Structures are given as C-alpha cells and as structure tokens.
TrEMBL record, chain A:
<protein>
    <submittedName>
        <fullName>DUF2783 domain-containing protein</fullName>
    </submittedName>
</protein>
Automatic annotation (TrEMBL), chain B:
<dbReference type="Pfam" id="PF01494">
    <property type="entry name" value="FAD_binding_3"/>
</dbReference>
<keyword id="KW-0285">Flavoprotein</keyword>
<dbReference type="InterPro" id="IPR002938">
    <property type="entry name" value="FAD-bd"/>
</dbReference>
<keyword id="KW-0503">Monooxygenase</keyword>
<dbReference type="InterPro" id="IPR036188">
    <property type="entry name" value="FAD/NAD-bd_sf"/>
</dbReference>
<keyword id="KW-0274">FAD</keyword>
<feature type="domain" description="FAD-binding">
    <location>
        <begin position="33"/>
        <end position="375"/>
    </location>
</feature>
<keyword id="KW-0560">Oxidoreductase</keyword>
<protein>
    <submittedName>
        <fullName>Monooxygenase</fullName>
    </submittedName>
</protein>
C-alpha cells in the first residue's frame, strides 16, 4: 500500500491541475504527455525503488 | 388573474392539504404598511418569517400556491439545520418523523471502496443527518406559523411587480380574486431558484452551470436497508455515471442517478425507460422487489450566486440568492443558514433598533459563504460529473486506485454542508486571549448536560450572554456585566454558568459541576461570551466588563 503523503487539500489541488493540463493537450498527445509527466515526477522523487512501487500500484485494476 | 391549482397534488405517501385563499384587507381599500414581506413559503421563507416573528417583527408571507412543495425535494437536514430549527423552537415534529444517520458507503466494481463517517461529537444533541421529505419540513413550519400572531401567511398570492424607493417597496400581488398593491418596508426574496423577484429586479447570478443532468426519483419499496447514504460509481447498467440511494420516512427511497451525456429530461422521465433503470438500481443493491413511483424530476448542477444579497430594500435568501450543487446537501441547508443570518438583522432594522447598514454584513457573510461552497462543491461536482476528458480520466484514475490503494480515497467524499464560521465579519469584536474555546464568528458549541439536556436548550431569544461564575458565584465585575446586559437597549438573554447552585438569580443558571461547559469554552471565572441571535459568537472576554459588552453590542448592530 502506498503511504498517504499529500493532504486531501493538496490532492484536490493536484487533481484539478493535472485534469486541466490534460485538457490543454490534444487527445492524441495525452499518452506522451503522461509518460513525460511520470518521468519528470520520478526524477523529482529521486528514488527508483519508490518509482517501482508507484508503477506496481498504477498497473493494478486497469480493466 | 392568478389561478393556483386547487386540487391536492398527487402523491402515494403524502396527503396534501389545500389552504384557502383569504381576501386581504388591502383588496378592500385598507392602506396598511407591513414592516417586512417575505416572498415564497418554501422551507427558507417559512423559517425566515418564523424567526422574524420570534424576534418581535411582524411580517406578511406571500405564497403563490395553495399547498406545500410538489415532491420531496430537499430530504436531508444537517446537524446545523437541526440546531437552527431547535433554537426556533420547532424541532420536535422533525425528530419524531425524520430518520437520523451518520455514515455512508461507496461502491465501485461491486466492492465497498469508501466508508464516509460524518463527524459526531458526544456533546452534540443532533446526529449529522436527518432524512425527511420537504413536504413535512414545510408542513411543520406552516403549523408553527399558524400559532404565531405576528405572521400573516397568504396562500395563492403571486408577486407580479416590485417597485423600490428609499423608504420601502410596493409589491403588486396577483390572486384568485384579482391584483392588489402591498406597501412594505422590506422585501425578503425567498422565492426559489426561478425567483420572480430576481427577474423583476433584472439581477444576474455569477458562476457556472455544469452540463451533466441527474434524475431524482422517489419510490415506495420494502428494501429492508438501514438509514445510510449509498453511492455507486460506474455501475454496469449506467457506465461512467453514479447512483445515490437515500432512505426517507414512510417507506420511501430516494434514487438519484446521472444521465448518459446528451439524454434529454423528457427522454429520461419517459415512464418505461425510468422503470427499467429503477429495476436496474434495485437489482444492483440486491433488492429486486416491487415498487411504486411517487415523484421524479431532472436537475443539473450549478455553482451560481448573486454578487450581493441586499439590493435596495430587498434581501435574497436560499435558492433565490444562489444555486448550489446538491452534493453535500447544500441546498436547503445553506438556505437555513441564510435565513438564520438575515432574520435577526432584519428584525432589528425593521423595528428601528439598528441602522439599515447592518444588512450589508448579512450580504458580506453569506455571499462569502456561498462563494466558498461554490469552490468546494465545484470540486465534488467535477468528480461526480466530469466536465471534460481530463477530469474524466482523473476521476477514473482515482476510482481505479481505490480498489487497491488508500491514499486518494478521500476524494470520493464530497464535504458535507456545515456551519459557516464568519471569522472576518465586521460584527466581531476583540477576541480576548483565549486558548481554545469558540472563536468569534463560529456558532456556539453545544454541550451535553444530561440525558435529555443540552446547553442549546437554555439559549434565549435575542443576543446571548454566557457568563462564567466561580465557586463563590459571580464577582462584582461579572455582576456589573450581567446588569449591563439586563439594561441594554437590545434584547440580551443572560445565561450564568456556575459550578454550584445559585438560587434566586434573575439570569438563567446552568449548573456545570464538572466544568464541562467551562472546558469546552476555555472559560475561567469572570469570562463571558456574547453571541448574536443566530448563535454565532461575536465577542468574548477572559475578564468581561460593562464597557466591553456595550461596545461589542454596538458593533454587532452595525454601529461600531
């Protein structure tokens, strides 16, 4: 289970910001945008083990 | 000529009473002027009129129909609304009829992914939610008004014209027997989302409307489920949309679901299609039982508010002032707080006890509250009805995570309506160095005193002074403050909190042997709180003085 680090208010803020950023990108470029976002966040996180944890969580329940 | 329906509205659980239109004296040439006219006898107009009367202000209440609300509409009273009805002295029938509840459960892919616990303090008298149909809310308030000689409730009276001047307003009222003019000092527009008063004054609301439409349907069925809020995200029968289920009194259930994009209200309410969807919902909750339809309607979400709730001699309350998303039960519950915040001010102004500038702080406080709600409820609305592909992707990402992760589950809970704290109100005075307790602008906190006894039961009408005595009773300084309160120009109810019995006092004494009230209010001997008639604190002192009290009262009346 991923630890809860952001507060609910921060999470809501981030939710809106990413949603708006997604809307600003043309539909056919959203995958590329999300891949770049994941890479940038991984770099800011600075911990490959944590990135692996996030990858595992995100890969579940996709269908 | 106004022709309201004279047949009782149809319902399988509620027996409508058709009230007679009574010809008012103005139609026969009487030149009367009423201090306040409230337009609209929905829950908010009714409570406004009742609170005005409780504070000694006479009013006429105009209602265009001859009977209460069509359909059950607002069905959840928050704790704050229950407290407001309690201080208005009318809560008993609501508690006898309503269904109290404290939590909700949310489901996704057939699994319970979130349990919403609404905060409840053992010192609170009321549970966080009380489910009751709007017909009963209106019926009980109408009954209380019938016993109130200061209110003249006129059924079948529709406002068709409004002219304002510096001294008041003239309303043109259409009735089954023709039109008449009513001269009034002040108008309260409580005439709902499609307010005629708002239109007559040419006022526009600010904000946005959301595209998604929802159906609410009330059915009678024997589901055998407890009173809790059920929420289903993305069910198989309604992909991408959500369903809410609430229990109501009389074996009625409220089903609320979002329509597929682009579907019209007419198509959604087509009986066979609606019946199929209701069957699908009952199958989803595991109760495929027979049911009967009572009422259904389509709504959409908006976050809209007038920028000012006082326009000339007209004050706006409830849906006439703002249209808010119903997620988090913010319609009637926000309106009750409007009514509570306006009525005491208007009573003082209309009775000549306060300058009309006092009403400006009503607008400031409540427009501020509405804007905060728009911001907060806008988030819930964007989750429930994503306005774009970006928001839909984010919503789906959160739902997917809830099946295995906890960190973003709280996004499934829209914050529920709660009392607003008027921290920046110009009516607040200094906050004398307390550590904890109740800050100026916040509503008084309730305290449980016994099996069926709470602090709120002891509150009087008008301003409220709560003074804290030591073991020896009030000292000379506190006695002077209590005397000043008794002699004040404005009505101030006095409550003396004491650890020991104090026989023969003029004030109402509340025993606090274990110091529980003192602790909740962080108050030592000699301390005092001053609350406005709507029970919001406006000043407090660790060592109260008559001068401080006089200054705080003047400030709370808009004279500061």
């Amino acid at each position: 289970m991923l630890p809860k680090i952001l507060t609910n208010a921060q999470l809501e803020e981030v939710y809106d910001r990413i949603a708006e950023a997604l809307d600003a990108v043309p539909a056919e470029r959203r995958q590329l945008f999300l891949a770049k976002l994941a890479l940038a966040l991984a770099n800011l996180l600075g911990d490959p083990a944590k990135v692996a944890q996030a990858l595992e969580a995100a890969a579940r329940d996709l269908d | 000529m106004h022709q309201p329906a004279t047949q009782p509205r149809p319902s399988i659980f509620y027996r409508y009473r058709v009230h007679p239109f009574r010809r008012p004296p103005e139609m026969d040439g009487a030149a009367t002027e009423v201090p306040v006219t409230v337009v609209g006898a929905g829950p908010i107009g009714l409570l406004t009129a009742l609170t005005l009367a409780r504070l000694g202000c006479r009013c006429v209440l105009l209602e265009s129909e001859l009977q209460v609300s069509q359909g059950s509409r607002a069905i959840v009273l928050t704790r704050r609304s229950q407290e407001i009805l309690h201080t208005a002295g009318v809560i008993a029938p609501f508690l006898a009829k309503g269904l109290p509840w404290t939590h909700g459960r949310s489901f996704y892919r057939g699994r319970e992914v979130y349990r919403m616990e609404m905060p409840h303090d053992p010192d609170d008298r009321f549970l966080p939610g009380l489910n009751i149909q709007q017909q009963y809310i209106e019926e009980y308030l109408v009954a209380a008004i019938a016993a109130e000689p200061l209110i003249d409730l006129r059924w079948g009276s529709k406002v068709v014209g409004l002219a304002q001047d510096a001294a008041g307003a003239t309303l043109r009222v259409d009735t089954p027997e023709g039109e008449y003019e009513l001269r009034t000092g002040w108008v309260v527009a409580a005439d709902g989302g499609r307010s005629a008063i708002r239109r007559l004054l040419g006022l526009r609301m600010e904000g946005r409307a959301y595209a998604g439409s929802f159906v609410i349907a009330d059915i009678r069925a024997d589901l055998g489920l407890p009173t809790e809020r059920l929420c289903f995200f993305d069910p198989d029968w309604n992909p991408g949309n959500n369903v809410l289920v609430h229990r109501e009194p009389d074996g009625i259930w409220r089903l609320d679901f979002r329509l597929p994009d682009g579907e019209t209200a007419e198509a959604a309410l087509e009986p066979r299609r609606l019946a199929e969807r209701i069957d699908a919902i009952l199958a989803m909750v595991g109760r495929p039982v027979p049911w009967e339809m009572d009422w259904a309607a389509v709504y959409s979400a908006s976050t809209l508010t007038l920028p000012d709730y006082v326009v000339g001699r007209t004050c706006f309350v409830g849906d006439a002032a703002h249209l808010l998303p119903i997620f988090g039960v913010r319609g009637a519950n926000t309106g009750f707080q409007d009514a509570d915040a306006l009525a005491w001010r208007l009573a003082l102004v209309a009775r000549g006890l306060a300058p009309s500038s006092l009403l400006r702080s009503y607008s400031g406080e409540r427009v501020g509250a509405a804007r905060e709600i728009c911001e907060e409820a806008g988030r819930s609305t964007r989750f429930m009805t994503p306005p774009s592909e970006g928001f839909r992707l984010m919503r789906d990402a959160v739902l997917s995570f809830t099946l295995s992760e906890a960190f973003c589950k709280d996004l499934l809970h829209w914050r529920t309506s709660r009392p607003h704290t008027y921290a920046d109100s110009p009516l607040n005075s200094e906050d004398g160095g307390f550590e904890g307790g109740v800050t100026p602008g916040a509503p008084l906190k309730d305290v449980r005193l016994g099996e069926d006894e709470h602090l709120y039961d002891h509150l009087g009408r008008g301003f409220q002074l709560i003074a804290f005595a030591g073991p020896q009773g009030p000292d000379a300084a506190l006695e002077a403050v209590l005397r000043a309160a008794a002699e004040a120009r404005l009505p101030v109810a006095r409550l003396l909190v004491s650890p020991r019995p104090l026989p023969g006092r003029a004030e109402r004494v509340v025993l606090d042997p274990e110091g529980r009230i003192a602790a909740r209010y962080a108050a030592g001997p000699g301390a005092a709180y001053l609350a406005r008639p709507d029970t919001h604190v406006c000043a407090r002192w660790r060592r109260a003085t008559p001068e401080g009290l006089h200054a705080a009262l003047a400030r709370a009346c808009g004279e500061g």
